[in-house]
Amino acid sequence: MKRILIIDDEIRLTRLLEMELHREGYETVSVHDGVSAIREALNGSWDCILLDIMIPRISGFEVLSQVRKMISSPVLFLSAKSEPEDIIRGLDAGADDYIVKPFHTGELLARIRAALRRCEQQRKWKEISFQDPLTSLLNRRGWDASVPLILQAAVENGSRIGILAIDIDSFKEHNDRYGHEVGDRALTTVAESIRTTFSGIKALFCRIGGDEFAILTAGIEEEEVFSLAQKFSAAVTAAFQGGEKPLTVSIGIKTAVPQPETTVKELIHDADAALYRAKNNGKSQTVVCKRDSE
Length: 294
What we know:
Order of helices and strands: EHEHEHEHEHHEHHEEHEHE
Strand order of the largest sheet: 2-1-3-4-5
Strand content: 15-25%
Shape: elongated
CATH architecture of the largest domain: 2-Layer Sandwich
Radius of gyration: 25 Å
Structural class: alpha/beta
CATH class of the largest domain: Alpha Beta
Distance between the termini: 44 Å
Largest sheet: 5 strands, parallel
């Protein structure tokens, strides 16, 4: 069921909106001032927000400014301000639509449906653009967009994150000998081993490109990350054991409790350096980078 947050200080109007939205199958919550609006918007999960501009304590514009920093749900302004400059200001402030009071209920419902459709389409396009089509893991674009957000959260929470750089050993020779169709099956097998091994763990899984994969873990100590990496490596070896096309993986690991000055680039650099050592050690190895470890 879609959830809609109503922010308006007109009690009779909010009750009317709740009744109409419930009739359409939406779940609603109503608040009547700007401070409560920001708290509810950021603490809840909302598919759409209906926001009056003239509300007590904090204006609708300030509410929108704060909410837009954290959520991307569509926000529809409801306002008695009907001059063109008011509408322009509202849309330029980041609202997805601007509806003048008094409004026709049927039109409002139609505009809500349209906003929800646009949001769903954007979600699907984002999912497609961030997903590797072969393995259904994140692609490099999705990885680059997601990792900085998790890094920032780890800095704020003081939690440990881990980066695993993974490479399939001798994959080019495997591809050249058996062909790309067999190679693609190998890539999907490795991806499935990642998902299975790290299931239930707060983590991102990515196919960086070619035979390179990456994993980001959050809130897990280094010993457990290493143990999971070993388990994953063994699973890949077992998946290809006994056939004429054996494959193994090499893994480099970097974990840290990031500081404000910590960058994604340096964490990935350290994980890649550990991977390079794993390769030089004879492949099918897991190496942990200990440089500046916390």
